[in-house]
User: Fold this.
Amino acid sequence: MRKVQAMIPKTKGRVAWESPANIALVKYWGKQPVQIPMNPSLSFVLKKSVVEINMDYVIDPDNDFKINRFTLNGKSSEPFSEKTEQYLVRLNNFFPFLKHTQLVIDSRSTFPHSAGIASSAAAFSALALCICTIDARINEKKGDGDEFMKKASHMARLGSGSACRSLYDGMVLWGETPLVSRSSGDHAIRLSDDLINNALMRLNDAILITDSSTKRVSSTHGHALMDHHPYREQRKIQSGINLEKMLAALAEGDFTAFGEVVESEALGLHGLMMLSTPPYLLMHPNTIRILEKVRMFREETAIPAYATLDAGPNIHLIYPETVKSNVLPFIEQELTPYCEGKQWIDDRMGDGPNRL
Ligand code: PMV
Assistant:
């Protein structure tokens, strides 16, 4: 005990990061301990949907770990404070100083209140970046660069699997696959630019809110239901095939092939939910209406816009920047009537986290 205490410095400071949400094109669904994905997934980060964390820390060998204050958008939040505490206690094993740290955490989310969009990837990646920055500071290590981001991605993964993909711009891969060198289940990697055609590097994501209520079945539970799922092995094979198709589409700049994988992955994810034991359904009637509208729009106009869903009823409509002037009126006139309070977010591919 005395030995550990001797290594803990007495210091205090402040650190702040803003980190984005991400949208998966090939979905992570199912895992094994500890938060290692059952299959590789691929995503990109968003521009506007971000969480900002401001963290004041006091490290003292005589302190025990404690969060003295936690606020979300200026208000104290018991559930988020508890989740953050559980996460940081888990990180104690990696960062001995945390056991002796007291924190004041103020967070801000740009997600509209109760939008029903998971902000956990943004929040856990921002938290991981703050803790890794304190670690770098007190151990006189680099607080940026490849090794730092790899560690932050690894730590973010322990909060929420998909959070490890929020650390990079461009296309981000998480999970081991023979298709991509350096791929890993421990942390995500950024796909190098020469693997992606420029046409697919300027994507928009219109997030259409069909239902903002809390999900009936959490992602955590959904992942667990994959443990004994009748299609578990088939899903591993199918996600590998889809990843291969996606990588080819990205390399060739083929938006139609890209979009076909995107929609197949989204519907496949919800198909797995419907085939779970017990089965469940997270789509809202308006989710289906929007999916149909999007399909008809494509058939009538030949404009490439494809829909995806996470583990919830809200739709992400992905389309290239070049067709934005055609897609915006379609969203406003044909899709917002199916959105709760006509709510939607005009988001796009972002640049990754920002140190504030
Ligand atoms: O990171 P989690 O445990 O919230 O799981 C995310 C799962 C999906 O959003 C459905 C898919 C994905 O890859 O993001």
The domain at 2-193 is CATH 3.30.230.10 (Ribosomal Protein S5; domain 2). The chain has two domains: 2-193, 195-354. Residues 1-6 have pLDDT under 50 and may be disordered.
